[in-house]
Amino acid sequence: MPNTQTINGTCLCGQIRYKAVAAPLFQAHCQDCRRNGGSAFAALVFVPIESLNWQGETHSFCHNSDSGNTMTKHFCSNCGSQMFGTNSAKPDRIHIKVGTMDDAKWFQPQCNVWASSRLPSTPVSPDVKDFATMPPAPTKK
Ligand SMILES: [Zn+2]
Q1: Of 49, 47, 44, the residue nearest 32 (C-alpha)
Q2: Measured between alpha carbons, how far is residue 82 from residues 1, 96, 100, 126, 128 in Å?
Q3: How does 1-16 read in b/e, with b if 16+ C-beta sit within 10 Å?
Q4: Per-residue pLDDT tens for 77-107?
Q5: How far is CA 29 from CA 34, 58, 63, in A?
Q6: Residue 135 C-alpha to ligand 1 middle, in angstroms?
Q7: What is the pLDDT of residues 6-36, one digit of tens each?
Q8: How far is the CA of 17 from the centre of ligand 1 (A)?
Q9: In this structure, which topology does domain 5-130 adopt according to CATH?
Q10: How far, in Å, is the centroid of ligand 1 from the Cα of 23?
Q11: Residue 42 and residue 61: Cα distance in Å, rounded?
């Protein structure tokens, strides 16, 4: 079980500020989030949705996952920084984009999801397990 973290962060322009105090539920690199984040992959931390509070105006965009669930991306209404994401199949959790965190040195991805989409130039760590698509849902403890 990961330690409880106090996670603070902001968007590029500073309009959005957030805080979550939570033991992360899941930490991952996602190779399928390239278009959304404009980078080679996304670094994500999932926390219980009730642990996250934010100030400032976000806009959101919904799209369907391969499994047919509604994915909602929340981004700053002013500067467009991608901040958070939710999945209709798991409404009790939300992911935070690690790149928006003030201090993310503790971040340790547990796996690469959608590794089948990895760009050839993306470094691979032998300590981080690959899943070709999404791993099976973790069992509740
Ligand atoms: Zn902003």
Answers
A1: 44
A2: 27, 9, 8, 28, 24
A3: eeeebebebbbeeebb
A4: 999 999 999 999 999 999 999 999 999 999 9
A5: 11, 23, 20
A6: 32
A7: 999 999 999 999 999 999 999 999 888 888 8
A8: 9
A9: 2.170.150
A10: 26
A11: 17
Residue 29 CA, ligand 1 centroid: distance in Å: 23
DSSP-derived 3-state class of residue 138: coil
Tokens describing residue 110: 């547990």
The token pair at 33 is: 């989030």
What is the distance in A from the centroid of ligand 1 to the CA of 72? 18
Instruction: Please report, for residues 1, 25, 80, 138, the alpha-carbon distance to residue 141 in angstroms, rounded to integers and kept in the order given.
Output: 10, 11, 36, 9
Cβ-based neighbours of 53, under 8 Å, separated by 6 or more: 18, 19, 20
SS3 22: strand
Q: What is the pTM of this model?
A: 0.89
